[in-house]
Amino acid sequence: MTEHTASPAPRPHDLPDVSDLVVGVLGGTGDQGRGLALRLAGVGQQVLIGSRSADRARTAAAEIGPGVTGADNAECARRADIVIVAVPWEGHRDLLTALREELAGKIVVDCVNPLGFDNKGAYALRPEEGSAAEQARDLLPDSRVTAAFHHLSAVLLQDLTIAEIDTDVLVLGDDREATDTVRALAARIPGMRGIYAGRLRNAHQVEALVANLISVNRRYKAHAGLRVTDV
After folding, report:
1. Which end of the chain has less Cβ packing within 10 Å, N or C?
2. Which residue segment(s) compose the domain that 57 sits in?
3. Is there a contact between 52 and 73 (Cβ–Cβ < 8 Å)?
4. Is the residue at 43 inside a domain?
5. Mean pLDDT score across all residues of the chain
6. pTM
7. Is residue 3 one of the residues assigned to a domain?
8. At what angle do helices 31-42 and 54-64 cross, to 10 degrees?
9. Is residue 229 part of a domain?
10. Which pLDDT band holds residue 67 (cuts at 50, 70, 90)?
11. What CATH number is given to the structural domain containing 59?
């Protein structure tokens, strides 16, 4: 009988050093964006919050604290090395279309979940392009588009009494160097791992799974995340 040997877990030194990168968060005044900015700033990452209103972004940055500054979305996209897109699905296309030039050459991390809601709860939408991440790829041909950070609880991210966020971050993309960079960024947040989960063509089911997690959270009064076993 052949003995099964587990693959070694990803080790931090196998990933690039991203500590000097400036991370922009488009939609950084919303719950998820604000939570990510808070956690990344907490480990020393330089974070730039973007919003339609520069004043609103600067106010949010001041509330989060040291290491975070605010700007309008265009300036955020220009100044950041890596840009997280955390805006509502309804504004996704228009925002990325407007920022195509500013985002050229940047690693773009799309964490938008196309969802609908009715009296039965949340359900997944299917964008014409296949997923929000694939829409971003089509709208930003000169950017390095990845998908990640879909399944994080904004409540847990913003609760600093919780020292570690017990979850894995599924990272998708067609550029391996870019996905390794995003995995490394996720791994900076205590408790998280970044796990490569395939190419962008597989992003729809990752985005759609949020609808299931919403159902889990409602039933069990929880803030559920995901863990991938045996890696």
Report:
1. N
2. 14-220
3. yes
4. yes
5. 94
6. 0.93
7. no
8. 50
9. no
10. very high
11. 3.40.50.720
